Amino acid sequence: MDLFSQLEEKNKQIPLAAILRPKTLEEFLGQTNVIAPDSPIYNLLKAKRMFSFILYGPPGCGKTTLARIIANAHGAHFIELSAVTSGVKDVKEAIVEAKEFLRSGKITILFIDEIHRYSKTQQDALLPHIENGTIHLIGSTTENPSFQIINALLSRCQIVMLNAIDDESIRIIIEKGYGYLKENYPNPKLEINDSAKETILALSNGDARFALNAVENSYFASGKGNKVDKELVENLLQKSTARYGVDQHYDCASAYQKSLRGSDPDAAIYYLAKMLAGGEDPRFIARRLIICASEDVGNADFRALLIAEAALKVCETIGMPECRIALAQATEFVARAKKSNAAICAVDAALADINNGKDFPPPLHLRDAHYKDAKKYGFGVGYKYSHDCPDEYQQFLPDELLGKKYF
């Protein structure tokens, strides 16, 4: 290590969340659905049977920590990359490094944080090395892997779903954080109220990293008052204690869309505000608006779809806090608009027919005739340009579906 690196290490202030990061499965809190004794994943890890997998869960639920614990348990060489700052070149360098460790009998775990940010090409680069056992991949993502990870990679990895950490575990983590700080940075005069701990719990929404950062910052932010309470925590974090976790994300989105469908603008605006106050991505809300404008309003008032699309554009180009106004405007319009679900009913009925075996080709006269031998097969023969003969009957549905009404 050179002089500059030594100085960097000396002057680093390691965050409390890093200091208290669990080292063993037994210390790892809040994921009993995955690592409870005798659970399938727990047994695989205890048996030292390594496999590649994707950890899917919200921020601060322990994805990186669990990856490191697994690497330690297997005595594996651990390489950590971030998909935000790395690419194919870094993956290639990791493979070279992994091969060197294989020669000495040591497996390599390649951990890629935010793996959903890798492009298809970057994800493809991992495949042969997972396949031949050069590396064992652990990816972490906050996004649904089914939509963000290529199928070829999904087929080679086990998906492990992690939950937001439960309240009781967050309480233990908060107490542990304050306990460490009291021991290492003693301040006998400092009073830490239970209200502060409960406020951090409420604001953390199952995010252990957030909770420990709040513990650390509040401990040193008390000043001359020598008191850590609810008011200090809320002022420090500039947030109220309105609860908005993973469950609220889905529940409020569902209530919002159902209020729009039910033509209740007051309920819809309340759930809009609740989502925004909870830090919801405004683009997610706008997408819900677009779905409702198409599914529930449809052509009863085609303007709803245009206004919802405009709201999404505002969210993308301007962002918060100003885009809340466009969202409110679109929310009111969609909620008050006349409703028709004819479009979704029609397309779903047609899809049901096709999926149930009524998958018929178009009549010959409607088929593509823009190539040399088309007429030889009868394709395009007899088709009438509708603008030239608007009053003449012409068959468009397949013979087997004549008279079928989807609308």
Distance between the termini: 73 Å
Number of domains: 4
Q: Tell me the Rg in angstroms.
A: 29 Å
- Let me know the average pLDDT: 89
Fraction in helix: 40-55%
CATH superfamily of the largest domain: P-loop containing nucleotide triphosphate hydrolases
Order of strands, widest sheet: 2-3-4-1-5
> What is the SS-derived class?
alpha/beta
**Unreliable parts:** none
H/E element order? HHHHEHEHEHHEHHEHEHHEHHHHHHH
- Estimate the global geometry from the Cα principal axes: flat
Number of H- or I-type helical stretches: 20
CATH domain fold name of the largest domain: Rossmann fold
Which characteristics define this entry?
407 residues, alpha/beta, Rossmann fold, Helicase, Ruva Protein, domain 3, five-stranded parallel sheet
Structure description:
There is one protein chain. With 407 residues, the protein is of the alpha/beta class. The protein folds into 4 domains: 31-161, P-loop containing nucleotide triphosphate hydrolases (Rossmann fold, 3-Layer(aba) Sandwich); 167-237, Orthogonal Bundle (Helicase, Ruva Protein, domain 3); 246-336, Zinc Finger, Delta Prime, domain 3; 358-401, no CATH class. It is built from 20 helices and 7 strands. It has a 5-stranded parallel sheet, with helices on both faces. Helix 6 (88-103) links the parallel strand 2 and strand 3. It is flat and about 95 Å long. The model has no long low-confidence stretch (mean pLDDT 89).
